Structures are given as C-alpha cells and as structure tokens.
C-alpha cells in the first residue's frame, strides 16, 4: 500500500490557491481506487481547512512543515517540537534588527490559534494579518500579551527579499532552529519567512504517518525548500515545473506546472486513473 502526500501551495493548489475541478476529480479517482492520500503543508490547519473541505482528506495531516499532525478521526493534534522562550527571543531579535514584524503563532488542545505580533510596520504586513484573520479565523493580539506558558508552534514574517533572507541566514545558524522562505505571491517582490524548531519537518511527519497507517511506501509532491526533508524520506518524490532548482535536483522526476494541474495529470498516468 502507498501513501500519496501533497504539498499545497505551488503544488496541489493552482495560482488562485484552490484545488481545481480537474484535480478534485482526480482525488475522487484516487479514493475510488483505494489509494491513500494526505497533505504536508507549511500552512496552519485553520489556513488550509476551507481549501481541503469537501475533498475527503480524512487521514492524518501535517501542518506548519511537520510541526503539528492533525488527526481528523479523533480531532486532536500531536506535536513533534515547539519553540522555547529562548529560541523565540532569538527569532524576534533577528526580525527586529531587519525591520520586519514577527508573527508568533500559538495553539492549544482546543484547536484555538492565536497569533501575537508587535506593532505592524508596513502595508504588506497589515495585508498579511488581515488575510490570516479572515482565512483562518485566527485571533491576533499584541506581542506583549503573549503568555509565558504559551505553546509556540512557529513564527512567520513577510517583507522585502533582502531583509527576509538576512533573517533566514541568522536563524539557520542556530542549532535548534530552521527557517524557510519563498515568494509570497507570484509576480510580486515580497517573500515570506517561516521559522520553527529543527526537529520538526515534513519528512519526520510523513515517516510518523507512514508508521501510524501501516503503509509501505510514500510518494510525495512539492515545490520549495521546505519539501526537501519530505523528498528525502519518500520512496518517490516529484517536483512541479515551477519548483526551485534544488527541489528539482532532489526529485525522482519533474512533472507539470502547479497552475496546469501538473500533479493531477501525473497521478492519472501513474495510476492509470482514466481507465479506472
């Protein structure tokens, strides 16, 4: 038995950050054939919930690059590693030094998510926090209200590429932290930053899900550097045509563009789904 694992943005989702009708039909074909599938994404569960709704994602799902695994059947999270107060302080100071705002994400067992942040510095940051609040129904509060015992899952930022990459370099010099970055929107100069504990990864999450489900092989799809650990852990890995070069180099093969249903076209051929 095989487990198919999808990254979302830049991979399964199209340019509009949606699952197309063609891809939705392909997922239905996978279900009909009894092929297991799930997601491993940098998004929070709240940020992915509306996108996944109606597409029968019933197996455990990895969110925030493997920091959290959501178990739909029992409706609970399991966590591989969260950020300590000292690690959070390093991230906040690095962001402040480059003039970008850290958005500190927390969660509790009731699936409540609150993001804490200092005063916003730019219009793009205001747009980000507005998007987070609307799309994921996440509450935002001032950073100085962050409880001392808060469970901090990750930190996000958005800004000009040079500033984001500088913070990314600083954070990645820390032994227990890992930072990823990428284009915030296609055709735009803004980049996002995602920081979490180094022991949390998509690769670790899919290994855990593989054991949990008793499946033998993993086939995964991705496009960015946060997918590398997943590619290393999988038996087969495929990069979309829009993927960064390092991911293409690490992949078993390169498939079609994410905005042209590249994953769905590959799956139909790989599993002969059109004939199902």
Description:
Helix content is 36%, strand content 25%. Strands 8-7-6-9-11-10 form a 6-stranded mixed β-sheet. A 5-stranded parallel β-sheet has the order 2-1-12-13-14. It has 2 domains: 2-80 and 200-275, Rossmann fold (3-Layer(aba) Sandwich), CATH 3.40.50; 85-197, Hypothetical Protein, Haloacid Dehalogenase-like Hydrolase, Chain: A, domain 2. The radius of gyration is 18 Å and the shape is globular. The mean pLDDT is 91. The protein has 276 residues and is of the alpha/beta class. The longest helix has 14 residues, at 123-136. Helix 2 (21-33) runs parallel beside helix 10. The chain has helices at residues 8-12, 21-33, 45-52, 85-97, 123-136, 161-172, 202-213, 228-233, 245-250, 262-270; strands spanning 2-6, 36-39, 61-63, 68-71, 76-79, 103-107, 113-117, 139-142, 152-160, 177-183, 190-197, 217-222, 236-239, 253-254. The two termini are 17 Å apart.
Mean pLDDT: 91
Assign a percent range to the helix content.
25-40%
Query: Structural class, from secondary structure content?
Result: alpha/beta
Beta fraction: 25-35%
What's the CATH architecture of the largest domain? 3-Layer(aba) Sandwich
Outline:
The protein is built from ten helices and 14 strands. The chain has helices spanning 8-12, 21-33, 45-52, 85-97, 123-136, 161-172, 202-213, 228-233, 245-250, 262-270, and strands spanning 2-6, 36-39, 61-63, 68-71, 76-79, 103-107, 113-117, 139-142, 152-160, 177-183, 190-197, 217-222, 236-239, 253-254.
């Amino acid at each position: 038995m095989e487990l198919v694992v999808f990254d979302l943005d830049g991979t399964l989702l199209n340019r509009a950050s949606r699952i197309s009708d063609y891809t939705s039909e392909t997922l239905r074909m996978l279900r009909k054939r009894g092929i297991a599938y799930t997601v491993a994404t940098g998004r929070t569960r709240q940020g992915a919930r509306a996108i996944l709704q109606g597409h029968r994602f019933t197996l455990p799902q990895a969110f925030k690059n493997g920091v959290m695994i959501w178990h739909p059947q029992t409706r609970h999270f399991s966590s591989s590693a969260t950020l300590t107060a000292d690690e959070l302080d390093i991230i906040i100071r690095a962001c402040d030094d480059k003039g970008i705002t850290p958005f500190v994400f927390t969660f509790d067992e009731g699936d409540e998510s609150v993001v804490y942040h200092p005063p916003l510095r730019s219009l793009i940051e205001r747009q980000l926090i507005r998007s987070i609040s609307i799309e994921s129904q996440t509450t935002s509060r001032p950073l100085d209200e962050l409880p001392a015992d808060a469970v901090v899952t990750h930190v996000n930022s958005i800004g000009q590429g040079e500033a984001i990459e500088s913070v990314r370099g600083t954070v990645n010099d820390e032994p227990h932290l890992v930072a990823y970055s990428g284009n915030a929107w296609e055709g735009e100069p803004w980049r996002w930053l995602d920081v979490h504990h180094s022991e949390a990864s998509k690769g670790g999450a899919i290994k855990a899900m593989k054991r949990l489900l008793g499946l033998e092989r993993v086939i995964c799809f991705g496009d960015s550097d946060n997918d590398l650990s997943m590619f290393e852990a999988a038996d087969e890995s495929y990069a979309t045509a829009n993927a960064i070069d390092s991911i293409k180099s690490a992949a078993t093969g390169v498939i079609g563009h994410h905005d042209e249903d590249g994953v769905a076209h590959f799956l139909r051929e790989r599993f002969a789904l059109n004939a199902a």
